[in-house]
Each structure stands twice: as structure tokens, then as C-alpha cells.
Amino acid sequence: MNRTEFITAIAVILFVAFVLGWFAHWLLHRFTRVSQSDLGELDNMAQSLHEAEEVRDQAITYLQQREAEMTNQQSQTEAELSAAMDGLRAARQEAEELRAYVEKITKG
Question: Any residues with CB less than 8 A from the CB of 58 and at least 6 apart, and which?
């Protein structure tokens, strides 16, 4: 094999490799091409996702506000319960003192 035949063989091999690469690229591009309907569907999905995120954010905000209200109401209820328990304790103590006084007077 002389020099000219070697160069020709290499050129043919490179040309065949180029054609095979180009054909593989074309074939891959043909099967993975995105159509307009697919793009429209992706846009609709993106819009729906955006709306869902907004609704989620609104729900989170509402829940945080509601939680703050409920915590405040619970604190108020606990304060009222504590005051009622203190009043009941004082009333029991006063009733016990009055019983002791009445017993002391009736015995004496």
C-alpha cells in the first residue's frame, strides 16, 4: 500500500465516520424533537404550577395567621382559668374560715 492509497483509505474512513455521525445526529434529533403542542402543554403545566404555588403560599399565610389567633385565644383562656382558680381558692378559704368561725361561736 503506497502513500496515495493510504491517504485515500483514511479519507474514505473519515468520510464514512462523518456520514454515520451526521446520520446518528439527524436520527436522534428526529426522535427527540419537541413539537408545538408539547411546548403548549409545558406552558400550561408551568402556569398551573405557578397558580398552585400561589395558592399554597396563601394557605400557609392563612394558617400562620390562624395559628397566631388560636395561640392568643389559648393564652387568654389560660389567664381566665388561672384567675377563676385563684378566685375559687380564695372563696374556699373564706368559706372554711367562716365555718370555723361559726363552729367557734356555736360551741362557745
Answer: none
